[in-house]
């Protein structure tokens, strides 16, 4: 069996940046790496982008285009395809799978929408447990600076409010799921990468 590493954190925390760097680091050490993400590029992922993520500002902030439950089910359907078609076969082939977001995103965001956490956990029970989940944690103010925002003041405040709730949820989830390790994402790209490498060596390769 290979190893399964997941990156989590609020929007703009540095997940994609650090996932790529870790992938490169592992490849240079001879590991076969599969870099992947959620939502996926499959038909389900495209449906999510169409119905949820590009559903206008209301879609992102309030999930107004479709019901919160339908949104959670769509993400879970996309994940089921991801697990069965990509993650499981890659792990069975001895590869290191790195996923940019996984079911912890569903828990943190959909819980922030007001859905029941235990229902969300049950819904995602099929999802293979990662060996390590790296939670990139930083204040919302900093993440918003990194990604910038063109939206008007009222929308900006709403987005900040949601992101703050999501950040709190992630930190609560880290208490519940022992595979989640918090990494301070306020440092430089290089310093964060070094912290992640140390964590991966310690947790996964027991050096
Ligand atoms: N440590 C850092 N310090 C400053 N800027 C950073 C740092 N890490 C990443 N960035 C920059 O912040 C922006 C967001 O980073 P990135 O895309 O990796 O975040 P993300 O968590 O994948 O975001 P999203 O959730 O939107 O996909 C990018 O422009 C990136 O270059
Ligand atoms: Mg990203």
Topology:
Blueprint: E1 3-8, H1 15-28, E2 33-37, H2 43-53, H3 56-62, H4 68-92, E3 96-100, H5 103-112, H6 117-123, E4 132-137, H7 140-147, H8 153-176, E5 180-184, H9 189-203
Parallel strand pairs: 1-3, 1-4, 2-3, 4-5
Helix pairs in contact: 1-9, 2-4, 5-8
Bound molecules: adenosine-5'-triphosphate and magnesium ion (MG).
Please give a quick description of this structure:
This protein is α/β, with parallel strands linked by helices and 207 residues long. The chain has a single domain (3-203), classed as P-loop containing nucleotide triphosphate hydrolases (Rossmann fold), CATH 3.40.50.300.
Structure explained in plain terms:
By secondary structure, the chain is α/β, with parallel strands linked by helices. It has one domain: P-loop containing nucleotide triphosphate hydrolases (Rossmann fold). It is 58% helix and 13% strand. It has helices spanning 15-28, 43-53, 56-62, 68-92, 103-112, 117-123, 140-147, 153-176, 189-203; strands at residues 3-8, 33-37, 96-100, 132-137, 180-184. It has a five-stranded parallel β-sheet, with helices on both faces. Helix 1 (15-28) crosses helix 9. The longest helix is centred in the middle third of the chain and has 25 residues, at 68-92. The radius of gyration is 17 Å and the shape is globular. The two termini are 19 Å apart. The mean pLDDT is 92. Adenosine-5'-triphosphate binds next to helix 1, helix 7 and helix 9.
């Amino acid at each position: 069996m290979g190893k399964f590493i997941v990156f989590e954190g609020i929007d703009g925390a540095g997940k994609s940046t650090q996932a790529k760097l870790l992938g490169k680091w592992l490849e240079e050490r001879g590991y076969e790496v599969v870099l992947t993400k959620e939502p996926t590029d499959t038909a389900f992922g495209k449906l999510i982008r169409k119905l949820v993520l590009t559903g206008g500002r209301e879609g992102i902030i309030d999930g107004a285009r479709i019901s919160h439950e339908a949104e959670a089910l769509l993400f879970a359907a996309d994940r089921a395809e991801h697990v069965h078609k990509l993650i499981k076969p890659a792990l069975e082939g001895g590869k290191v799978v790195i996923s940019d977001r996984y079911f912890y995103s569903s828990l943190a965001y959909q819980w922030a929408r007001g859905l029941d956490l235990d229902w969300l956990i049950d819904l995602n029970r099929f999802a293979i447990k990662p060996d390590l989940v790296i939670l990139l944690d930083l204040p919302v103010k900093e993440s918003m600076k990194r990604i910038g925002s063109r939206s008007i003041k009222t929308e900006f405040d709403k987005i900040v409010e949601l992101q703050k709730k999501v950040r709190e949820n992630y930190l609560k989830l880290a208490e519940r799921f022992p595979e989640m390790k918090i990494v301070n994402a306020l440092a430089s790209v290089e310093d964060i990468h070094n912290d992640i490498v140390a964590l991966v060596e310690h947790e996964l390769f027991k050096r």
